[in-house]
Amino acid sequence: MIPENPYLLLTPGPLSTSRTVRAAMNRDWCTWDSDYNSLVQKIRARLVELSQGGSAYTSVLMQGSGTFSVEAVLWTCLKPDSTLLVISNGAYGKRMARIASQMGANLRVLTFPEGSQPDPKVVEKTLQEHPEISHLGMVHCETTTGMLNRYAPIADLASKWEKIFILDAMSSFGGIPLDVRSPKIDFLISSANKCIQGVPGFGFVLADRTRLQGCEGNSKSHSLDLVDQWKTMEENQGKWRFTSPTHTVRAFLQALQELEEEGGVAARYQRYRLNHEILIRGMENAGIRAFLSAEDQSPIITAFHEPENPGFSFEKLYHLLKSEGFVIYPGKVSQAPTFRIGHIGHVFPADIHRLVAAVEKIKFW
C-alpha cells in the first residue's frame, strides 16, 4: 500500500497533486497504440482551447522538463541571421538568455531589477536602435520573486515592430487567464507539472501554425526540433518521435479534466488568488514582509524577506514547517535574503490557514 503524501508541496513545481491524478498512472500504455495516441490528441486539442488560439494555433508536446521546451523553441525559431532580445528580471529570464548564448545565437539582453517590471519604453528604444532584432522573449511569472510580469505591452510592441514574441508561461498557463491571440503570442511555453496540476515529465508549446511551419529546417538539435515533433504528432495522430512519458501523459489528461470540473482557468485563478491573499495576511500578522509590492505579486508563488533576527535560519524554518506537513522553497533573489512559498497545485484556502497557524507557532523571530 502506497502511503498518502506526508506533506503539501508549497513550491512552484512539482506541485501537490490530487489522489485521482496520481491514480491515473496506475496502468501501462503502448506508445504506438491508437488508444494511447488518442489521449495525446485530446490533450493537444484541449491545450489549444485553453489558450483561446482557435484554428490558427496548434500544440506540441515535448519530453523533459519545461526548460527542454524553452530550448526546443529557441533551436526551432532562431536562424543564423536571427537576433533574440531577452527581457529579464529574474533567474528564468537569465536562463533563456543562457540557452540562446550556448546555442551561439545572436543575442541581446535587457536586464531589469528583480523587483521591477520590464519598462516598455526601454524595450521600444532598444527595438528602434537595433533593427536586427527578430525575436523577443520574456517570462510571464518570474518565480524568482513571484513577479507577474505585464507581458501585454511587450507583446504589443512585438506586433508593432513585426517581431516574433516568445512567452515563457511555465508557471502561469492554466492558472491565469490569457488569450494567445490578443495580444498575440507566437510561441507560448509551459509544463505538465505547473498550474494544470499534472506530474513532471513533459512540457508543451502553443504555437501560431504559420510561424511554426516557417521554422522547418532551422533546428540544429535533433531531439529538440519542435517542427519535427509537431509533424510527427500531426501526421501520426498523436505519436511522439521518441519514447514518451506515458504515465505522465495519462495523469495530465486527468488533470485537464479536473481543471474543467473546477470551473476552468478563471475558477482556478480565483482559488490561487484566495490562497495568496490568506498567505499574505497571515505572514504580515506574523511580522514577515513580502519582497514585492502588492501590484506586482502573482497568485503563483510569493517571496518573503527573511526576518531580521539572529535566531532565524531558513533551514530551521524549512524543517519545522516540514514537520507540520508543509514543504516551502529557498530564496533565489540576489539582492536580498528571502524564502518563497507557493500557493498553487492541489492546495486550498484551508491548507493555507493551517500553514499560517504553523508559522505563528514558530517563535524564533
From TrEMBL:
EC numbers, comma separated: 2.6.1.37
Cross-referenced InterPro entries: Aminotrans_V_dom, NH2EtPonate_pyrv_transaminase, PyrdxlP-dep_Trfase, PyrdxlP-dep_Trfase_major, PyrdxlP-dep_Trfase_small, SP_NH2Trfase/AEP_transaminase
Taxonomic superkingdom: Bacteria
Annotated GO MF terms: 2-aminoethylphosphonate-pyruvate transaminase activity
GO biological process per UniProt: organic phosphonate catabolic process
Role summary: Involved in phosphonate degradation.
Protein name: 2-aminoethylphosphonate--pyruvate transaminase
Organism encoding this protein: Cyclobacterium xiamenense
Gene that this sequence comes from: phnW
